[in-house]
Amino acid sequence: MLFNTTFRKIFGLILGIILLLLLMCASLIYGYAETNVVTVVKAFTNFNGSNEHIIVYNVRLPRALIAAVVGASLAIAGAIMQALTKNPLASPSIFGINAGAGFFVVVAVSVFYVNSYQTYTWLAFAGAAFTAFLVYFVGSLGREGLTPMKLTLAGAAMAALFSSLTQGLLVVNEAALDQVLFWLAGSIQGRKMESLYTVLPYILPAILISLFFAQKINVLTMGEDVAKGLGQRTGLLKITGALIVIILGGGAVAVAGPIAFIGIVIPHFSRFLVGNDYRWILPYCIVLGGSLLVFADILARLVVMPEEVPVGVMTAIIGTPFFVYIARRGFGN
């Protein structure tokens, strides 16, 4: 634990907020179109309809805000999943939540030709919930019952299944492939504020509720028997946690597609900074998860300019070494 006093934790959180704001400012400045700080400031204080101002206000601002919200959502979802399952590899991507939500959206696009953000959101929630149920059910089968390793294997199996079904649908429907291919790789390019407005009424309450339940999560991580002995209704807490994960994971997929590794990397990094107290882990997940995705989005638009890499590719490049390290440490290899 790097920050071992309350003062240091507060100071670190303030630094994280400043980092997030600086990265969001950088996201407004840097890209294919050349702009600078003065241009960005004038776009908000003296908008004149120029191409530069339109790009800043209508293109880059939504990207920065969406990246911050999606990154925070995935990080909190991963932290809660790891607490509830006692599995260091738990995250919406590894447990197939992202793949299931994405599959439901692709079915809507390729079969029913849906193009409504509101419909995408509800379908992503349904896909996330259905996948979570399948992973829990499959992971519970067998004599030993539910174990972290079986949950991981069940999640990987569901992720592979829904990814394969998604690819199969797109093979037989090339028109849908053109529409969702970039989104499936995880991307916030071209996203409008409308998409954020659609999911924010669900994501924001879920984040606030997760912060309210942080102390109860602390008790639950001490063991279910201990939690019950202290009067905690563990079943209700687990259901609430599962609903929060479904809303955050499904909402993130609806806006940005299946973005991997943030839900694994950020919770572990937050624990490294502040220890195992979820009253601090979750706020750190908000600022660090948002910061990581905004940073990855900046890199995504710069590395092969004038072309752009899906932000999901950048998070995979950043997150894969951490995933390997956590997998080896978490399962004692």
Automatic annotation (TrEMBL):
Q: Which UniProt keywords apply?
A: Cell membrane, Membrane, Transmembrane, Transmembrane helix, Transport
Q: Which molecular function term from Gene Ontology is one that the record holds? A: transmembrane transporter activity
| Lineage: superkingdom | Bacteria
Membrane-crossing ranges are 12-33, 64-83, 95-114, 120-139, 151-176, 196-214, 235-266, 278-300, 309-327
Q: What is this protein called?
A: Iron ABC transporter permease
Write out the similarity annotation: Belongs to the binding-protein-dependent transport system permease family. FecCD subfamily.
Organism per entry: Metabacillus litoralis
Methyltransferase among the record's keywords?
Answer: no
Question: What membrane topology is annotated for this entry?
Answer: Multi-pass membrane protein
What are its GO biological-process terms?
siderophore-iron import into cell
Principal place of residence: membrane
Name where it's found.
Cell membrane
What GO cellular component entries does it have? plasma membrane
